[in-house]
Write a structure and sequence with these properties.
The complex is a heterodimer of chains A (270) and B (251). With 270 residues, chain A is of the alpha+beta class. In chain A, 39% of the residues lie in helices and 25% in strands. In chain A, the strands form three sheets. In chain A, strands 10-1-2-11-12 form a five-stranded antiparallel β-sheet. In chain A, strand 7 and strand 8 form a beta hairpin. Chain B has 251 residues and is of the alpha+beta class. A five-stranded antiparallel β-sheet of chain B has the order 8-1-2-9-10. Chain B has a five-stranded antiparallel β-sheet with strand order 3-4-5-6-7. The chains are: A alpha+beta (270), B alpha+beta (251). Chain B: Keywords: Cytoplasm, Nucleus, Proteasome.
């Protein structure tokens, strides 16, 4: 008995998907629905629920790639951490985002970093973003069905210019210009798709990413913490900002001072 | 000495691996092969030993392509060459699959040399008895490259090199006469080097030119004959110019 929203997922997933498959699909839905589906296998489910929260996004524009993410980790309704680093620095010119299992993402990203460095040493030139993402996706494919949970975006700048790939633990690998992964992704997509232009400046692009993450954290209970924004350009990546989304809220919706006297005047007597 | 040249994995007391040296001997007995790197093309030339009348000469190609942008010519045991070439071709495609990029010349040379080295450090196997000349253009930079490997598994890059029969004389000739050339000049230089040790004529030489745009192109016998004729003419003209003025001019 499938909830109806499941049918609308546009990814063409097959029957019998595990909880994580839908988690990593583009166009995810808030975690509240997930909790309902998880009933029987509570221990396993609890473990999986540990990391059900992400708002990560990345997009290519004229000047390079912007990568942004929140920093909340939740275990069901419990927020286990507000300061998780979801953007992993593979090497000085390549970044990876973390979604799904934190351990899996961290380990395999570090492993990818090692492989990239070995490639550099052996071939005397940097590996391309295409090559790096392919290395990772081949590894993940070989572990397919064994329970790895990774939904990552590999972003970087190589000889061919900016590159962005989405790689997941099913072995899927997609090349694209705009991606958002995680429970907050629908909200992030809304803001991102609306405000995106190819020829933005770096500051404009960073601001768009920051707003998109903020809006994702505003509506999705499983996303929050700090919105980090990175920029990847020809000289490598640079962290643009890391703002607490609570403070961003007051920046985007500043408090309008209402005169207190007014209320008191209008209040009905006794 | 007899005790140390059996199993390949054994060093001799004076630091030799005899099997590797014997493999180099096999290479020295193989047909002559030359490679010359130009600015926009690389030329491979191989000596063609006279083909028996009934043999279909087209089935005995000595210059082969490993990928659309890489070619190889070798001297030594042809059967070993076939095996090595097959492995290299697979590796070229495997590389395209794993990093979505064609191989660089250096990468595939390193792979072939690595393979040759592996067989010098295993039990019960003998080294590959061939030296390969590997040419190609790097897919990204477009720079032409020429590499040579040998049975010991070492490799290095060259501007021009020769291997096989009488390779020393060819190399000497190239050292004396090499200069940066392009297009047809590179072909001529390669043929001139080969003609030092091979009977002249299109049917004794096989030439292939690798260019960035067209990949590997084997020259027809007629083309080779034409170039050989040009070279002979140039040689004759040079000889005539060198002749001392006739004695009649002196009193």
């Amino acid at each position: 008995m499938r909830p109806s929203w499941r049918m609308r997922t546009a990814c063409g997933r097959r029957a019998g998907d595990t909880l994580f498959d839908s988690r990593l699909a583009l166009g995810n839905f808030p975690s509240t629905f997930e909790i309902k589906r998880v009933g029987s296998n509570s221990v396993e489910a609890f473990e999986k629920l540990k990391l059900l929260s992400r708002a990560t996004l990345a997009f290519i524009f004229k000047e390079g790639v912007i990568v942004a993410a929140d920093s909340r980790a939740s275990m069901g309704g419990y927020i286990s951490s507000q300061s998780v680093k979801k953007i992993i620095e593979i090497n000085p010119y390549m970044l990876g985002t973390m979604a799904g299992g934190a351990a899996d993402c961290q380990f395999w990203h570090r492993n990818l970093g090692i492989k990239c460095r070995l490639h550099e040493l052996a071939n005397k030139r940097r590996i391309s973003v295409t090559g790096a993402s392919k290395l990772l996706s081949n590894i993940l494919y070989s572990y397919r069905g064994m329970g790895l949970s990774v939904g990552t975006m590999i972003a970087g700048w190589d000889e061919k210019g900016p590159g962005l790939y989405y790689v997941d633990s099913e072995g899927g690998r997609l090349k694209g210009t705009r991606f958002s992964v995680g429970s907050g992704s629908p909200y992030a997509y809304g803001v991102l798709d609306n405000g995106y232009r190819f020829d933005m400046t770096v500051e404009e692009a960073a601001e768009l990413a920051r707003r998109a993450i903020y809006h994702a954290t505003f509506r999705d209970g499983a996303s929050g913490g700090v919105a980090s924004v990175y920029y990847v350009g020809p000289d490598g990546w640079k962290k643009m900002s890391g703002d607490d989304v609570g403070e961003l809220h007051y920046k985007y919706y500043p408090v309008v001072p209402t005169p207190i006297e007014q209320e008191m005047v209008d209040a009905p007597a006794a | 000495m007899a005790r140390y040249d059996r199993a390949i994995t054994v060093f001799s007391p004076d630091g030799h691996l005899f099997q590797v040296e014997y493999a180099l001997e096999a290479v020295r007995k193989g047909n002559a092969a030359v490679g010359v790197r130009g600015t926009d093309a690389i030329v491979l030339g191989v000596e063609k030993k006279s083909t028996p009348k009934l043999q279909d000469s087209r089935s005995v190609r000595k210059i082969v392509s490993l990928d659309t942008h890489i070619a190889l010519a070798c001297a030594g045991l042809k059967a070993d060459a076939r095996v090595l070439i097959n492995r290299a071709r697979i590796e070229c495609q495997s590389h395209r699959l794993t990093v979505e990029d064609p191989v660089t010349v250096e990468y595939i040379t390193r792979y072939i040399a690595g393979l040759q080295q592996k067989y010098t450090q295993s039990g019960g196997v003998r080294p590959f008895g061939l030296s390969a000349l590997i040419v190609g253009f790097d897919p990204d930079t477009g720079v032409p490259a020429l590499y040579q490997t040998d049975p010991s598994g070492t490799f290095s890059a060259w501007k021009a090199n020769a291997t096989g029969r009488n390779s020393n004389s060819m190399r000497e000739f190239l050292e004396k006469n090499y200069k940066e050339t392009s297009g047809q000049e590179t072909v001529k230089l390669a043929i001139r080097a080969l003609l030092e040790v091979v009977e002249s004529g299109g049917k004794n030489i096989e030439i292939a030119v690798m260019t960035k745009e067209q990949g590997l192109r084997q020259l027809e016998e007629a083309e080779i004959d034409a170039i050989v004729a040009e070279i002979e003419a140039e040689k004759a003209a040079a000889e005539a110019a060198k002749k001392p003025p006739s004695k009649d001019s002196l009193v």
